[in-house]
Specification:
The chain is α+β, with helices and mostly antiparallel strands. Helices cover 31% and strands 18% of the residues. Bound molecules: ligand EPS.
Length: 390
């Protein structure tokens, strides 16, 4: 089966960050300005630390693209670190609770947490945003849009998010420096970040990603690790500092009866031409996925990020060399990176959606994939078949 995959490499203060993307069909128009815009957004958000004033992340597309289009060969992406001084970075002997420091030092048999933290750092997510950018270029060819935003920072929660007008949602999100489309909530979020900074503390929050224009049948129910919901959960949980993932209603399903959870099905022939094929729902509690497959409704994924583990007022720790009690090390860091994390979440969700598209419709080229896509939707519209299917 054709599939799409990627790996990343690179340290926070190493020479560069890399992503190697395999399985991108030939003929996808690569929108470098779009990828760079997402990298820039990842660097932003109210509450970010000093590093982002040093870096100006841009993607270098090293392989697999000719004259602006993918060739079908692996695509190597690079985001160069300006703050590159890996060999000169100081040792860290006092692990930060909540960071990879202690677990990684024990794993790799060292007392210098630097060995672990350089790779564990969320700086690596720049490479994931670049890979997600390629996925978005593929999805754009099918009219699929992926939109992420922040819905909570600390106790400040978004209340009024109108999902019916995607362009307005995007404009409202981009008008907010915490990437939240609700202006009143954005103000409250800023106040929480300001206070955390004064207190020498950090804050986490919630991000939500919506995917519009998905055809039904992406993912599968036949194998647990090929379900689209399990793939999405893996991708989102794989983001540094993410502690929970939800699809649609998420954990709220546990507190309601079935009649208040499942989305009744209706048919509207005027929508037959859309990817929903005319099967409409008044609610989308399933978050667009039933049985591990898209059902034609927007896909909705939510992720919770814990507060950054590096505190200006450090928590209690021990020195790994002496075992004596001491305060955890303070490293330059962010007070809140939830806004940036929403961009990363958007990227990893986009990648999983693109992977599911390649697995269902994949061919070697976008032309072949498009032909498979439209013939599949045509077949769906022709149901029921007059002759037995098999
Ligand atoms: C980050 C870069 C890092 C941190 C942060 C995210 O840069 P530096 O360590 O040089 O300040 O600001 O990384 C972490 C949250 C972490 O835990 O390591 C980035 O580019 O996103």
């Amino acid at each position: 089966m054709a599939t799409l995959s990627y790996k990343t490499a690179g340290e926070s203060h190493g020479r560069t960050l890399l992503a190697l993307v395999e399985g991108l069909p030939a003929g996808v128009t690569i929108d470098k300005p779009l990828i760079d815009a997402e990298l820039k957004r990842r660097q932003g958000g109210y509450g970010r630390g000093g590093r982002q004033r040093i870096e100006s992340d841009q993607v270098d597309i090293l392989t697999g693209v000719r004259r602006g289009q993918s060739t079908g060969a692996p695509v190597a992406l690079q985001v160069v670190n300006k703050d590159s001084r890996l060999d000169e970075t100081p040792a860290v002997y006092r692990p930060r609770p909540g960071h990879a420091d202690l677990a990684g030092s024990l794993k790799w048999l060292t007392t210098d947490c630097r060995e672990t933290l350089e790779r564990a750092s969320a700086r690596e997510t720049a490479a994931r945003v670049a890979a997600g950018g390629l996925a978005r270029c593929l999805l754009a060819a099918f009219g699929i849009r992926v939109l992420g935003f922040v819905t909570a920072i600390g106790s400040a929660k978004a209340q009024n998010i109108d999902l019916t007008n995607i362009d307005k949602l995007l404009a409202d999100r981009d008008a907010s420096d915490v990437y939240c489309p609700d202006p009143a909530a954005s103000e409250a979020m800023r106040a929480i970040i300001r206070q955390a900074k004064i207190d020498g503390d950090t804050v986490g929050g919630l991000c939500e990603v919506h995917v519009f224009g998905c055809p039904p049948g992406l993912g599968t129910c036949v194998q647990w690790d090929d379900r689209l919901d399990s793939r999405l959960a893996c991708a989102v949980m794989g983001i540094q500092a993410f502690k929970s993932v939800e699809i649609g209603l998420g954990k709220e399903v546990a507190f309601r009866p079935g009649s208040k959870v499942h989305d009744p099905i209706a048919y509207d022939p005027t929508l037959k031409a859309t990817p929903s094929l005319g099967f409409v729902r008044e609610s989308n509690n399933a978050g667009g996925i039933e049985g591990g497959m898209t059902n034609g409704q927007p896909v909705v994924v939510r992720g919770a990020m814990k507060p950054i583990a590096t505190l200006l007022q450090p928590l209690q720790s021990v020195d790994l060399n002496t075992k004596a009690p001491d305060k955890a090390t303070y490293e330059r860091s962010d007070v809140c990176a939830v806004s940036a994390a929403s961009v990363v979440m958007e990227a990893v969700v986009a990648f999983e959606m693109a992977r599911a598209m390649v697995e269902k419709f994949g061919g070697d080229s976008l032309t072949e994939m498009r032909a498979n896509y439209s013939s599949y939707l045509d077949l769906c519209r022709k149901l029921p078949f007059e002759v037995p299917r098999l």
